[in-house]
Amino acid sequence: xxxxxxxxxxxxxxxxxxxxxxxxxxxxxxxxxxxxxxxxxxxxxxxxxxxxxxxxxxxxxxxxxxxxxxxxxxxxxxxxxxxxxxxxxxxxxxxxxxxxxxxxxxxxxxxxxxxxxxxxxxxxxxxxxxxxxxxxxxxxxxxxxxxxxxxxxxxxxxxxxxxxxxxxxxxxxxxxxxxxxxxxxxxxxxxxxxxxxxxxxxxxxxxxxxxxxxxxxxxxxxxxxxxx
Length: 228
Hints:
Elements: H1 2-19, E1 27-28, E2 33-45, E3 58-69, E4 74-84, E5 98-109, E6 116-129, H2 134-140, E7 146-160, E8 165-176, E9 192-205, E10 208-209
Antiparallel strand pairs: 1-10, 2-3, 2-9, 3-4, 4-5, 5-6, 6-7, 7-8, 8-9
């Protein structure tokens, strides 16, 4: 019982000191690039969600991207994702459920000086989709892709580990139009939704400048002849 309590106390102490770190002790670049890498679970919410209820809702997705900070509060990020969405297949059809997403987002950091930083993102993405006949595809090695577009909304938590690295958890929702892009069915809503719940690491390409502390020296204003 003592080990878990000590571990939780140590984590709380680290989080506390990271959250209250004085920026005077270390000055940073305000505009810099950063890289991210993520892995998580994808989901599809569309016209075939209830039809393919025997398939799993979530599958694997991986993504990576690069961003640039415009200020401590705002940054922009471009990202590529490769995801599996098995529920987009028609029943008993040889569908292609892999999707490739390319997105551009604006990120709003709510607490830029805290150790745990909640944020929101909004932007747009382009989704490459396609279906094919598996027998034909295996013969010629070709896959037919066409793009679809739509807005993206998301939110996350960024846990600061150091000046250069942080760990984050995030959830994004891609609203894909036209409605036939994902599942070849035109439904009532006019769009389908792709979900992505993920976790990953962020690497900041920033320089840290630690100011040299000044020393105050006390001395007489004038020195008389013969004084040491």
